[in-house]
């Protein structure tokens, strides 16, 4: 999977889908925590594919821990990473003025 040239809104859509997959452990009683054993490394891998560089790796670690720990599945890590990348980070970098 290569998400390098993916539109930011496509990344948002994929992030919402991946966050919803993380909520499956709440929906299916009995197998939820066992599903997290598979989903925790998968979500970390997907996070590194969606977001490159240091922030992607940090988000992957956060996503892995969040999915692996019982009760923390409610945190929408993919959506929060999208907000950080395209809303919070862009505000600080877009306001610079360049002159020729």
UniProtKB/TrEMBL annotation:
It comes from the Bacteria. The chain crosses the membrane at residues 20-46, 58-84. Keywords: Membrane, Transmembrane, Transmembrane helix. This is Uncharacterized protein. It comes from Olleya marilimosa.
